[in-house]
Amino acid sequence: MMPAAHFDAGSARTGSKMFTARLPEPLHDALTATAAVLGRTPADLMREALIKYFEELDVSQVLAERKRERQRQEQEMLSSVRAAATVGK
Fold this sequence. Notes:
This protein is mainly α. The chain contains 2 helices and 2 strands.
């Protein structure tokens, strides 16, 4: 059976969100050992990992949105050039 780990994944930005995760025992042991070496709690490490994950996700979504917008603008410009070329014939 996997050990349950309780984490407060809240932050000043997102507010407090409490959840329970069932981690495979090797992962739970590694998380606990790493936290002990760093003098932190497993919950602190998980909170930081989740915050970092969602911040990176936000960045990748913004970059993808910018790319789509740039492609849309390029397509509009190309359509305008084609239309002008057709009228000029």
